[in-house]
Amino acid sequence: MKRSRLAAFLALTVAALAVGGVLKLIGRPDWGDAVFAAGTVIAILPASWWVVSALRGGRLGVDAIAVLSLAGTLSVREYLAGSLIAVMLASGRALEEYAMRRARRDLTALYERAPRWTHRYGNDGPRKVDVSEVSRGDLLLVPAGEMVPVDGVVAGGAAAVLDESALTGEALPVEYPVGERVRSGVVNAGPAFDLMATAAADQSTYAGVVRLTRETEADSAPVVRLADRFAAWFLPATLGMAGLAWALSGDAVRAVAVLVVATPCPLLLAAPAAIASGLSRTARRGVVVKGGGSLERLGHARTLVLDKTGTLTQGRPEVVDIVAADGFTPQEVLGLAAAVDRMSSHVLAAAIVRRADEGGGTPYRVAQVREEAGSGTTGTVGDRVVRVGKAPAGTDSAWMATQRARAALDSATTVWVSVDGVIAGVIFLRDAVRSDAARTLRRLRSAGIGRVVMLTGDRTEVAESVAAVLGVDRVLAERTPEQKVAAVQEEAGRAPTVMVGDGINDAPALAAAHVGVAMGARGSAASAQAADVVLTTDRLDRLADAMDVARRTRRIAVQSAAVGLGLSLAAMVVAAAGFLPPAAGALLQEAIDVAVILNALRALRPARGTRLDVDAPTGALLHRFEQEHAVLRPALGLLREAADALDRPSPRALALLRRVHEALTSEILPHEQAEERRLYPALSRLLGDPEATVTMSRAHAEISRLAARLGRHLDLATAQGLRPEQLDDLRACLYGLHAVLTLHFAQEEEAYFSLAQRAG
Length: 760
Fold this sequence. Notes:
By secondary structure, this protein is an alpha+beta fold. It has five domains: 3-104 and 221-277 and 551-604, no CATH class; 109-210, Distorted Sandwich (Calcium-transporting ATPase, cytoplasmic transduction domain A), CATH 2.70.150.10; 290-314 and 434-536, 3-Layer(aba) Sandwich (Rossmann fold); 318-430, 3-Layer(aba) Sandwich (Calcium-transporting ATPase, cytoplasmic domain N); 616-759, Four Helix Bundle (Hemerythrin (Met), subunit A) (Up-down Bundle). It contains 26 helices and 22 strands. It has a seven-stranded mixed β-sheet, sandwiched between helices. A six-stranded antiparallel β-sheet has the order 2-1-3-9-4-7, with no helix packed on it. A six-stranded antiparallel β-sheet has the order 12-17-16-15-14-13. Strand 21 (515-519), helix 19 (525-530) and strand 22 form a beta-alpha-beta unit. Mean pLDDT is 79; it is low at 99-110, 212-224 and 521-525.
C-alpha cells in the first residue's frame, strides 16, 4: 500500500473512532454505532487484501486474525471493538511500512560513470565518437584524467600510467609499457596515451562489472515480516481457543472477544517500532541502513569480508621512511624531492610534498621542471639537477640493492632521488594500515563476528603483510571482480556474511553478500548504491556500533513481541471464560500495544555501559597529545638514520647522535612526561581503573632509561670520540628507542586517542 493510501486509511479509521465516540456522548448511539461499523468495514477491505496477497505468496499471515475479529465484531454488533481494532490495524501497518520500507538499489551512479564518449583516430586525427561505435582494432586516444573506455593494449611511443583503484583496489598507480594489455574502467593518471581496442564497450571489463551488479542484486530475497514467523502456531491456536470458547458456552460473543484480544498488534507494532528506532540510532552514529531487513541481517552476521584499500588501509600512499646516501641527510633528500614534485600531479609526488610540508622545512627554489611519463620529474635546484622517480641508468650499487630488498620486505614503493646523476637517497612509500584498524576488528569480533576475510585485488605479499598485523583469518589477494563475487558467495554459503568495500570493483561483491557495507565517505557512488549499509564517516568502527545496535534492536523487538503475545494469550484465556467483553478486550489490547511500543522505543537510546562520556578537559588533552604525535613522528626516522650511520663512524654519525639526543630531551621526553602528569591520571579517572595506564607508564620508563643511556654514551664520545666498543650498545639503544616509541605511539593512538571519537 502506498504511503498516501496508508495515511488515508489511518486517518479514516481514527476519524471513525473519534466521530463515533462523540456521537455516543451526545446521545446518538445508533449513529455512533453506524460510524463505528463504517470504520470497521474500512479496515476489513485492506486487511482482506493483505491476506489474499499473503496466500498468493504461499503464506497465511496473522492478518487473517484481524480480518476474522473485524468481521466477528460486526456479526455480534460489537461496533466499538471493531472500530478500535481498525485503528490498531491501521496504525500498526503504518509503522510497519515506515520501518520495513527498503531503499531500492539504484545503480545510476555506476551507469553514469560508465564512459559514453571516446576519442577515435581517423584520417583527420582523433574525433569524439559514441563509445558504442568502438570496434575491436580501433585506435583510440585516452586523454589525461579520463577513463579507459574499452579493453585494449597500449599503443604508440609512451607508456600508460593508470589509476586502477576502481577495479583492483590498488592505491598506487601502475605503469603499463607499450604493448601491455589494460582494462576498461581504470583512469589515466599520467599523460595522454594511445590505446588499441581489443573489445567493444559491451564486452569490456567495466561493462561486466555493471552486469555482475545487476545479476547479483536480482538474487536478493525480500524481507519477511517478523509477525509471519509466529503465524504457523499462533493462528491455529487462536482459532482453536475461540472455537472452544464458543462450543463450551454457546456464546459467539466470547469467540469474538478471544479474536479481538488475539489481534496480533504486539507483533505488528513491536518489530517496526524497534527497527525504526534502531535505524534512527544507527543514523546518529553515521551509519545509513537501507531498511529493517538489512538491520536484522546485520545483527545475525558471523563472517566479515573486507576489501583492503581504503578499508583497512588509508587508501593513499604515505611516506614511511627516507634513507639518505653518503653526503646527504634525509631532510635534504625529502626537501629536494618535494621541490621538484610540487609541479607534478602524480599521486606519489603528492605524498612526498605532503610529508615535506608536515616537516615544516625551508622549501628549495626549483626551476626548469619537466616530467617524463613513467620515468620521473627533473628540475634544477640552485646549480644542481635533481631527478625524482626511477633510478638513473648506470647507478646500481650494493647500497641500492639493499634498499630494494628492504622495500620488498616492507611491501613499499621506492622513489629514488638523484643529484647531478648521483643517487642522493630513496623515499619509501606505502599505503599504511589505518591506525584504528586493529581496534576496529577487535570490536567487530566482540560484536559477533567470528571470521574475518581480506578480499583484495592487490598483490599477495602486500595483503599478507597487512593481514599479519591485524590478525585476519583468511587472505584472498589478486582477485578480479568476478573472483570477488565468487569468494563472497562461498563465504555466504557458510554463514551470514557482511562485505565491506569502497570501490566500484566492490559493487558486485557487496550485492552478493547478505549485507553489503560501503565506505560512503570516500568510496565510489556505485558501491554505496549497491550496498545495504553505507558508512557516511570514514570510520570502520561505526560498523561495530551498527552491529551492536542491530543485535540490541532485534532483542528488544523479540522481547516486546513475546511480552505482548504473552499478555494477549492471558487475555484470550480471560475472554474465553467470559470475563472480558469485546470492547473491553479491545481497550486492553490497546493498552498492551502502548506498553509494547514504549518498550520497543528503548532501541532509540544507547545501551547502558556502551557510551563512554569523555569530559571536555580530557577530550582536549587527547586531542592535544594526538596532534603532538604527528609532529614527533619525523624524529622516529632520525633514530634509524643515526643507527644506520654507525656502520661508518664519522663526525656526521656523532652529529646525528647529538641531534637524536636533542630531539629526545627537548621534544619526546617532555611529551611523555606531560602525558604521565596530565593525560594518564585523567584517563584513569575516565576508565574507572587506576591501573589502566600502568603498562603505558612502564613504556615511558623504558624510553627515559634508553634516552639516559644514550646521553651517557654521548658524554663519553664528547671527551674521547666514538669508540668501537660503544657502537654495538649505541645501535641497541637507538633501535630499541625506535621500536619502543613506534609501538608506544601506536598503542596510545589505538587505545586512547580514539576515546573522544568513540564517545560520539
